[in-house]
Automatic annotation (TrEMBL):
Keywords: DNA damage, DNA repair, DNA replication, Ligase
EC number: 6.5.1.1
Cofactor: a divalent metal cation
Pfam families, alphabetized: DNA_ligase_A_M (PF01068), DNA_ligase_OB_2 (PF14743)
Source species, domain of life: Bacteria
Keyword presence, DNA damage: yes
PROSITE patterns: DNA_LIGASE_A2, DNA_LIGASE_A3
Organism ancestry: Bacteria, Pseudomonadati, Campylobacterota, Epsilonproteobacteria, Campylobacterales
Gene Ontology molecular functions: DNA ligase (ATP) activity
Name of the protein: DNA ligase
Organism of this sequence: Campylobacter porcelli
Domain ATP-dependent DNA ligase family profile: 119-230
Length: 271
């Protein structure tokens, strides 16, 4: 048996606390790191007995899905296809699991939180398990060694061109730690467009008495959606009028052609 299989790893049968989170890429040297596609799904932590969300809530997966999972901890995304974020969330977060819908969900695993080894060893261990215990529900995310930053951005271009959200880059020797790590980063590209404001929603909580969000219609696709971020306090106090055309940015489109994570940029033109 190859050496990585005898590396000591720890398994925690209960919640193992705060999960590892990504930071935004700035201008780091990525040579020698690894990269993979960033899957636009629902973050899920398997602790050996229960499947939990990033916030620690139980994910009610069907029994056959749970039985396919190993007795060691996994971290990854529950995902189906590019552009199906709405389907994924409605399926995964449903209190009563729809067995038929869950047949399309796959657990895209990118880390083994309690394995004492580097990322290559972790993925080898997982792939060895899957070789002996094949499952249509689990997949180890392929990690590609980065030659240089240009290599990483060429990969990003390819992922985005195929409808993906972005990529994740990381130092393969970094151990799994709670909270945000400067050794695991996300890199995304944004698209922009223009939309017309059709309604203004009041804010709640700290935004009471101010604008909370804008109801908009994209002037090109005619798709209606809501923008709730990117506004300064000044704009929230004195929002653009209904009928104003604004420019916004977004990551990609959902299956229903709605902009994913739309963010206000600026006023384009008024009435």
């Amino acid at each position: 048996m190859i050496r990585f299989l005898i590396l000591f790893w720890l398994f925690c049968a209960t919640s193992f606390g705060e999960v590892m989170l990504l930071k935004e890429y700035k201008d780091e040297n990525l040579s020698g790191w690894v990269m993979s596609q960033k899957y636009d799904g629902v973050r899920a932590i398997w602790n050996g007995k229960e499947l939990k969300s990033r916030n620690g809530n139980t994910i009610n997966a069907p029994e056959n899905f749970i039985k396919a999972l190993p007795d060691f901890a996994l971290d990854g995304e529950l995902w189906s296809e590019v552009g199906e974020f709405e389907f994924i969330t409605s399926t995964v977060l449903d209190e009563i699991p729809d067995d038929k819908a869950w047949e399309n969900i796959k657990y895209m695993v990118f880390d083994l939180p309690r394995f004492d080894g580097n990322l290559y060893q972790k993925m080898d261990y997982l792939n060895s398990f899957l070789s002996s215990n094949p499952s249509e529900f689990i997949s180890a995310i392929k990690q590609i060694e980065i030659k240089d930053n240009n290599h990483a951005f060429a990969f990003l271009d390819m992922v985005v061109a195929n409808g993906g959200e972005g990529i994740v880059v990381r130092d393969p020797n970094t151990k799994y730690t709670s909270g945000r790590s400067s050794s695991i980063l996300k890199i995304k590209k944004w698209r922009d467009s223009e939309c017309e404001i059709v309604a203004i929603n009041g804010g709640k909580g700290r935004l009471e008495g101010k604008m909370g969000s804008l109801e908009c219609v994209d002037i090109f696709s005619k798709v209606a959606f809501k923008i709730g971020s990117g506004f300064s306090d000044e704009i929230r106090t004195n929002p653009p009028k209904i009928g104003t055309i604004i420019t916004y940015k977004f990551q990609n489109l959902t299956k229903n052609n709605k902009p994913r994570f739309p963010i206000f940029l600026r006023v384009k033109r008024g009435e």
